[in-house]
Amino acid sequence: MIVTIIAALIVIVVSGALWLLSGVRVVSQFERGVVFRFGRVIPAPREPGLTWITPGVEKLRKVNMQIITMPVPAQDGITRDNVSVRVDAVVYFRVIDPVKVVVDVQNYLQAVSQVAQTSLRSIIGKSELDDLLSNRERLNEGLELLIDSPALGWGVQIDRVEIKDVALPESMKRSMSRQAEAERERRARVISADGELQASEKLAQAAAAMADTPAALQLRLLETVVQVASEKNSTLVLPFPIELLRFFDAATHPQDTATHPPGPDPAPLPHVDRHDAGGGA
Question: What is the band of 213 on the pLDDT scale with cuts at 50, 70, 90?
Answer without folding.
Answer: confident
